Every structure is written in structure tokens, then in C-alpha cells.
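Pilot study result, target chain (313 residues):
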Amino acid sequence: MTTAIYSHPDCKRHEMGQWHPECPARLQAIEDQLIASRISSLLEHRDAPKVDVAEIRRVHTADAVARVQQNVAALADSGGGYYPLDADTMLNEHSWNAALRAAGAAVAATDAVIAGELDNAFCAIRPPGHHARPSEAMGFCLFDNVAIAAKHALDVRGLQRVAIVDFDVHHGNGTEEAFLDDPRVMMVSFFQHPFYPYSELRQDTPHMVNVPVPAYSKGDVVRQLVTEKWLPALHAHRPEMIFISAGFDAHREDDIGQMGLVEDDYAWITQQILGVAKQHAQGRIVSCLEGGYNLSALARSVVAHIKVLAELD
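Predicted structure:
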């Protein structure tokens, strides 16, 4: 398997204050663990390009894009500082470039995988994306990287059906909203409930299988719902490509949530996704980092995830 890591130093320059859990050290921890686990040299490392703003506009409104761009420009003109988009989502003078690189990684990885240059890719990027609604940034997220990549695959690269798998501890409300009326996109997820973003629970539709689980759920609960709910829906949809919102904050060591997953659970979930991709999608997967705030647990879980994608075990 040819697996690439997409990232860029600009993604470390976006920061929201020393107190904030969504910090640049997250990417450094992943880089360090890839080296320590001796798999970094077995992967192809690619710089994330800046995305064309037109790609963002496939998912987000002009006002949502302008609010980020214009406030970052104002910060740069005034010499720095922060601009709060909401109580826990801040901009600094580097946030626009970081957001362009994050979405750019997802789109570039999509193009490379569809072209057959890569079997799959992991985007080590920030800011994350799955909470960003079409009309507004929220929840640490500026633009929905996975949704932008999925729209690119459909509207630019001509795929007919894709799937988005979201295993973050939080509901990917932005992604769900972006594709609620688009049956070309199958979205499957689990998320702790009740919990942020406290979004309305909708009845499952044939292309939205988003499963709430109670706090303190462990890997056995998640494996059962993957087997009973996700996999039948994914096989029925027959996606031509799979996108992953890869959040690792459901790990038992991550205090931002109250779930009990461990590295083996993330590896098992990834194996199931890879199996679907090989059966229906020529193995094509693009995975993008979402949450995960305990640095050690995050880094170990990402390595477990990538080892399965690259078939290194």
C-alpha cells in the first residue's frame, strides 16, 4: 500500500491561546510518535497546498468564508491577538492560511488517491472541520475539510457516491448539515450523547446513520454498532470513495469526552472501513484529523490508524 501523510507548518501557526486544547502540539505529538514507532520513513510525506477558495464555497456560504478571511486580515493589520468566533473558537493572524492548508490537504489527497498515485492518505491538519456549519464556524472548526473534499470528489472528479465515516466523540453536525439532502453521500458516525454540540437528534435516513451512545461506552459498544448499523449501510451504498473524520477524543485517556475506546478499537474500526473500501471503492480512503486532545493517546491512536491504512501490521 502507498499511504501518504499530508501536512504543513502553517497548520501549527494557527493557535487559540495557551489554555486551548486544540493546540499546535497535537501535530508535533503525531509527528514524534510516527518517528518513535518507526513507520514515518515508510510513508510518503507531502506538503498540503492552499485550497482554492472556490472549493470552500462548495460547502460554505460567502458570509462564512468572509468572516474568517476578513477578521484574520484585521488581526494581521493590527499586529496580532485573537478574534473570537464563538466562546471556544478563536482566530489568530495565521488562521486563514492554516484553514486553506487544512482543506487543501484534503482536496489534494482526494485528487492523488483518485488518480491512483496513492492508495490512501491521512491528513495531519488543523484546524479541524466537522463542526463547521455551512453558514458558520464553531467548535474549534473553521471550514469542514472532509465535506469540502467529498464535494470535490463528487462535483469536480465526477464520482457518483461517497461515504463519510466520523468516529469523533462529538457529533459531526456540520458534515451532517452539509449533506442532509444529498443522498450521494452516506454518513455514518457514533458520538457521545448528550454532549456538545447538543444538536437535534434526527431519525436515521437511508444515507445518515449517526448513532448516539451514552457516556462511558467502551469499545464493545462501538464495535457492535459498527457491525450492526454502519457496515450494512456502507455496503448498501457502495461508495466509490471513503472519507474519514478521524477524531480520537473518544479514547479513555482523553478528558474532553467520557468514552472508553483504546488504540485497538481505532485499529479495528479502520480495518472495517478498509474492508468496505477494498470491496466497493478500489481501496480509496482519505482520512482527516478531527479531535483528540490527550497528546499521548492521540499520537498512539493515530499511529494505530495509519498502520492499518498502510497495512504495516
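One observation from the pilot: The CA atoms of residues 131 and 164 lie 14 Å apart. A full batch analysis is planned for the follow-on phase.
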